[in-house]
């Protein structure tokens, strides 16, 4: 599959006549590195990092760093690995909580165009599991599952002037998104790590979610492999920052 991914990415570059004609050296440099060296590097791999998981992580990182053109390029490759329409759409839905609607909407629209061209019927099957009456409690339950008992009552904690943010974190971020189907809790924590690493400037949250990832079963070696696979898309500085946050999460 690694060789197939490399071939498909090269095919994309070759279909982009402008880029292939104006920057053939760049196309070769990036393609050989990202889809040859990085994909096959033992230190950047893990038994749990199959092609579907790798593709999901890269797509999430591209949303986080706002790489819309690269996201469009990666979609058919991800689909070819067997990553489902539901999984990709759920990743984008969840990005709303971490990247905001303004930065997420273009990716949702781009995915819908791709799915339409692939003759996928929209809307997809609903994945929601909560109601307006249950979302707050379900969100707190999910926070406790991921972060521990210290999150019990978090929605009602904090200074009066900002307590509503804690409430929204519980009922919206976790109650509306983390409780949905289509992705496991481990997958949702992984894509959150990718969103935060790719955005930059979110190191406190990145450290917290690195710790949360490990709490739900995504061990340190897996997280380093995920971040390493995302490196060609987010760059060395944010990759190194993410690894530092993972190290801090282990210590803490």
UniProtKB/TrEMBL annotation:
Residues covered by the Carboxymuconolactone decarboxylase-like domain: 24-104, 167-247
Pfam families on file: CMD
Single GO MF descriptor: peroxiredoxin activity
Name of the featured protein: Carboxymuconolactone decarboxylase
Source organism of the structure: Bifidobacterium adolescentis
Top-rank lineage group of the source organism: Bacteria
